[in-house]
């Protein structure tokens, strides 16, 4: 029995010694931090004041509960922030992707549809304008040709009228040649040469007047029969000249009518070209407006992409900073919670009256 009691006393003494050593180690660990030193100081003051141990235990346990609640709130808030961050990142990345798609699709439409369409319309207008220029060139040339033809007509009619007058003069002379003198004969022969001078050599009436000159040059005009033949020939010639005047006048009138009709056709053609240009210009204006709209939309979406990219970068940087803050706070709360639990174990020890800070 004594042996058993001795063993029990030895065990109690050994346990007390171990507890004393553990308490000393915990106290040393607590003194390594400001927060731990503050707790030890609180324990020392409470011991010196002789306050109830349970009251100090309750205070430290309440502190531990507060730390656990703050750590739990920190974890909850950070999880909420993480969810918000992830959601915002997904949204911004989608916005960036949508903006890139809009920019690429718009540029593709501009490059493959609208720009070629505008170029085609511009080329078409240039082609029609070239047709208009050719039309006006034909118009001006037609006027110049008609003017020249009219001048030639007037010149030919003047020649024919002069020839008619010369024939009339020759006929008048023949009426006086009943017993002609040499001077009268020469005057008549000169009048025939005057007629010849009025008629171009290329005229179909030139051979006729040459024959008359040849006939008259060998006559002394004493034979009335010969005179009658010459008169008939001159009248026939005069009639041919008048017929030529009438034919050329009719041809000139027809040429003028054809000319005016041709000019009217050219004017109608020019007006049609202008209508075509107006229609193409309407299409070109609409195409340019569409290009302006799509260019503005493309630039706006590209600006949106840059804005979303900047917002995403800012969000990632902000979240990284908040993550560092969260990690530091969590580590601090965890450290303080461990220190508080060590302090609680000190308070719950058998004797902490000798604790010195």
Walk me through what this model shows.
This protein is an all-alpha fold. 90% of the residues lie in helices and 0% in strands. The chain has helices at 2-30, 34-49, 53-175, 182-198, 206-217, 224-347. The longest helix has 124 residues, at 224-347. The radius of gyration is 65 Å and the shape is rod-shaped.
Tally the helices: what do you get? 6
N-to-C terminal Cα separation, in Å?
45 Å
- Count every beta strand, where a strand is a DSSP E run of 2 or more residues: 0
Low-confidence stretches: 1-23, 352-357
The ordered string of helix (H) and strand (E) elements is HHHHHH
Helix/strand structural class: mainly alpha
Largest sheet: none
> What value does the Rg take, in angstroms?
65 Å
| Beta-strand residue fraction | under 5%
The residue-averaged pLDDT reads 78
Share of helix, binned: over 70%
Net shape: rod-shaped
Coiled coil: 53-84, 256-283
Signal peptide: 1-20
Keywords: Coiled coil, Signal
What is the element layout, followed by pairings?
Layout: H1 2-30, H2 34-49, H3 53-175, H4 182-198, H5 206-217, H6 224-347
């Amino acid at each position: 029995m004594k042996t058993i009691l001795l063993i029990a006393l030895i065990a109690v003494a050994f346990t007390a010694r171990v507890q004393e050593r553990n308490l000393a180690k915990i106290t040393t660990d607590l003194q390594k931090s400001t927060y731990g030193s503050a707790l030890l100081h609180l324990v020392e003051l409470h011991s010196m004041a002789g306050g109830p141990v349970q009251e100090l235990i309750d205070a430290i346990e309440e502190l531990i509960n507060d730390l656990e609640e703050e750590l739990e709130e920190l974890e909850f808030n950070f999880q909420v922030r993480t969810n918000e961050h992830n959601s915002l990142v997904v949204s911004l990345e989608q916005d960036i992707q949508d903006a890139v798609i809009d920019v690429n699709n718009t540029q593709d439409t501009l490059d493959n549809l609208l720009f070629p369409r505008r170029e085609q319309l511009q080329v078409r207008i240039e082609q029609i304008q070239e047709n208009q220029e050719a039309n006006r060139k034909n118009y001006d040339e037609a006027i110049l040709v008609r003017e020249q033809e009219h001048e030639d007509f007037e010149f030919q009619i003047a020649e024919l009228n002069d020839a008619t007058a010369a024939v009339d003069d020759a006929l008048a002379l023949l009426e006086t040649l009943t017993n002609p003198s040499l001077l009268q004969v020469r005057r008549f022969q000169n009048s025939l040469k005057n007629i010849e001078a009025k008629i171009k050599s290329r005229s179909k009436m030139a051979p006729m007047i040459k024959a008359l000159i040849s006939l008259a040059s060998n006559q002394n005009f004493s034979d009335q029969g010969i005179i009658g033949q010459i008169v008939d020939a001159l009248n026939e010639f005069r009639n041919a000249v008048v017929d030529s005047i009438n034919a050329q006048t009719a041809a000139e009138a027809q040429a003028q009518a054809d000319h005016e009709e041709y000019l009217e056709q050219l004017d109608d053609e020019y007006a049609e070209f202008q209508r075509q240009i107006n229609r193409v210009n309407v299409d070109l204006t609409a195409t340019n407006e569409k290009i302006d709209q799509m260019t503005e939309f493309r630039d706006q979406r590209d600006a949106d992409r840059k804005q979303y990219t900047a917002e995403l970068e800012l969000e990632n940087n902000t979240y990284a900073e908040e993550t560092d803050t969260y990690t530091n706070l969590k580590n601090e709360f965890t450290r303080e919670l461990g220190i508080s639990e060590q302090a609680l174990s000190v308070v719950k020890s058998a004797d902490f009256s000798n604790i010195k800070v």
